[in-house]
Structures are given as structure tokens and as C-alpha cells.
Model the fold of this input.
Amino acid sequence: MEEIIDGDTFVVNKQHIRLTLVNTPETNQTGYEDAKDFVGRMCPIGSTVLVDQDDGQLYSYGRIVAVVYCDGKNLNEELLKNNLGKIYTDFCAKSEFGRDKWAKDYGC
Done:
């Protein structure tokens, strides 16, 4: 992990990564710092993460759309589980992860 932009967007290996199916608060919204801080605790700058690109929606605004694993845990799911983001239902049918248990548990 090189940079945490917000709760659902960061830089890994010089690539911007956007979490699939998860939407966290933007800079000017309540909860922004909480979501960003949570990502920083779960995936600290300098840590190794696994990026599983979403084959159903490869890119969004030049960012890779993916599920990210930090220390073996699904960051997408952990943000939802901790009420720091909401499921992004607009892409449930398009995403390869839309039928995964964690996505369905939160509304896909």
C-alpha cells in the first residue's frame, strides 16, 4: 500500500485502485476520516496487499476496480461489516463479485 486517498480508493504499485461494490464517504462527508483511518489500520502504508481485479468492471476513471485483501482479510467486506461504507448496488449485476456471500450479505 503506497497511499490511501479515501476509504475506497488507494494507490498500490503506482496504480490507483477503487474497491468494487463498496462506497465510502467522500472528503467533505461525515465518516470520511473514520473509513480512511480504518483502511490505514488494516492496510498500513508499506504493507503488502493482494489486489483481485474485478473482471466484470475492469476500470473506473482510470482506476483498477478490485477486491483488496490485507493480511488475508477482504477489505471490501470489512468496511461494510464495520459500517464504514455501503454496498454499491449499481454494479452488483456487472461485478464478478456480486454473487459472493459478502456482497449478497450486504445487499447485492
Remarks:
- The chain has three helices and nine strands.
